[in-house]
Amino acid sequence: MTKSKKNSIIDFPNEFVVVDIETTGLSPVYDSIIEVSALKVKNNQIVDSFTSLAKPSGGFMPLFPSEDRDYLYDNDGRPFYYVSEFITNLTGITNEMLNNAPDLKSVLNDFFPFVADSIIVGHNVSFDINFLKANISELLNENFDCNYVDTMRIARKLFKDKKHHRLIDIVDYLEIQVDESKTHRSLYDCEITLNCYDSMKNLALESYETINAFTDLFSKINYLNYDPRSLVSESESIDETNPLFNKECIFTGTLDKLVRKDAQQMVVNLGGSCGKSVTQKTNYLILGNNDYCKSIKDGKSNKHKKAEELKIKGFDIEIMTEDVFYNLIGLEI
């Protein structure tokens, strides 16, 4: 039996599409998709593929132009760029490559029917899906609603004694050979993810005998034993100016749009931390929909009441809804 919460499922389906994107940054609101790739898989065989670079809708004007940058120039001779040196060094994608690429709307017009009604598989794939949902909604006026399997969630269960669960870490744990010069290009990352998916499926069967026995580990009973304080950042770099840096966040109730653990991991990736209960050290309390359930006395959870008490006493704590939390971190889903 597949364990699911909203669109996130834990399973090993026989038909799915592996998806990966490259972007100019971490925010679907302020950053752009620059490459989209997908592999369609049926019965352990790749039956189709999709890949394309995508030209961002606008560029950036450098305040202090550098002579050694690969700038592009507008009709007035002014320099501009689509991607930073960091992104170019990470992915190998240059400004010139993007300038010659189709625009994102054209790319998504082809990509959307390619993945329509498919289960999506990816590593930390909620990141990719959030970008795709925002852009498909804005550019195509379509809803990108899909069930998805996040291989990072599977990896955390299979390698629970390991500190990191980035794709590069899973490749190392599974002893999969990769060409590091090709990583951070979306099609090659799709291929790596598929290899990890297949290997982790075999490992789950070896360790637990059946897929059902493995997915049962994700039941709510087991989730109660999970401690968010044990989470570590999966990010290669952290923007210390973001509003969650060095802040403690507590979640209460059921989130509508993300699995709670994924939201907590997002906080940690931004340099924040998560706890199990509201204390004087708590900076943000994020309310899930259960906080408005009539079965809860006064319509508020104990965490909610505690946070209000601390706020009245002058402690630095803010109480916000799930949507306000996403707005705070620049995430549109």
Automatic annotation (TrEMBL):
Residues 239-329 form the BRCT domain. Keywords: Exonuclease, Hydrolase, Nuclease, Nucleotidyltransferase, Transferase. CDD domains: BRCT_DNA_ligase_like (cd17748), DEDDh (cd06127). The keyword Nucleotide-binding does not apply. One of its GO terms (biological process) is DNA replication proofreading. Its EC number is 2.7.7.7. GO terms for molecular function: 3'-5' exonuclease activity; DNA binding; DNA-directed DNA polymerase activity. It holds the Pfam family BRCT. The keyword Acyltransferase does not apply. GO terms for cellular component: cytosol. Gene3D superfamilies: BRCT domain, Ribonuclease H-like superfamily/Ribonuclease H. Transmembrane segments: none annotated. NCBIfam families: dnaq. This is DNA polymerase III PolC-type.
